[in-house]
Amino acid sequence: MSYPDRVRILNLRRNLNQLDSLAKEKNIIFRKTREELNACQLRIETLTMQQKDIEKEIERGKAAGNSAAVFRLQATQRRLCGELGNEKDLESNIAAMLNENVVSMEPYQTATI
């Protein structure tokens, strides 16, 4: 094997190692983003359940004529609505990042097959 061939092989091996490292980094980012999305979806589910519970409590408070509790619960409901809106915005941002990561990983996935 000639010297230029060996140099070329070494350069190709170095490039391949760099691509492998980059693919591993992208994979780690993808997994972390997926975990963030799952956590966000869990928070959305929790907030939704809390909202339903608060709505039931508001109805019970109205039926009992407990206006102080109703006002307090309505404030809590408004806070939960705000948090839920924020979480849904975050979810869409994370989903967009996840899709972007999937698209950016496609060239590396085909190279490793």
Automatic annotation (TrEMBL):
This is Cilia- and flagella-associated protein 74-like. It comes from Eublepharis macularius.
